[in-house]
# Entry
Amino acid sequence: MEKMHRARYTLEYKLEALRLIGAGQSIAAVAAMLGLADQTLHNWIKAQREGRLGGPGAKPVSAEQMELARLRAELARTKMEFAIMKKAAAYFARESV
# Structure
């Protein structure tokens, strides 16, 4: 049987996810956008409230890693927006016929 590995996320990645939630997006939408379980985000919110939100290990994160995490979140958000626009275009194209 293959051993499953838990995903490890940087503190910056977690903070970006929490920032999206704080900006008014729902937990479910952010979880879908980032490919996470809703419960993971709930755990991060709780950990942040309790002041124990951290990343994997204590190793510092480079500027490139931070930029990569930001770009991944932006790409996921853009993909979600594109999918919504595609569905809306199909709906309105069908309605005009």
Notes: The chain is about 65% helix and 0% strand.
